[in-house]
Amino acid sequence: MRHNFEAQRRETFDTFRDMPKGQRLPDRAPVDFLFLPEEDDARYDALSKALRAKGFDVTRDDDLLVATQTVQIKPEAIWEAERTATEIALGFDFYPDGWDLGVEE
Prior knowledge:
The chain contains 3 helices and 4 strands, in the order αβαββαβ. It is 37% helix and 30% strand. It has 105 residues and is of the alpha+beta class. It has a 4-stranded antiparallel β-sheet with strand order 2-3-1-4, covered by helices on one side. 20% of the residues are buried. It has helices spanning 5-17, 44-53, 75-90; strands spanning 28-37, 57-61, 64-72, 94-101.
């Protein structure tokens, strides 16, 4: 089944459209892009290496793989990073499970 990038893009832009008016967001922040494996024998290490090569920090929490990148907090910038990470993840049989603002340490 082909991934519907346009639907994924709409969800990201809708997140911003649906925010309460006046909600303050940082100019830049880490954003966590979440991915789940489609197979039991998922290639976490290979996907992590590919994501790191594109500038993402990668962590794993049980089955969930989290790719983090600090970006401008605007829908266009988040979508650009989200699409890049998703294209890589799909190549390793992982599928996107959303994103959220990460916590800067």
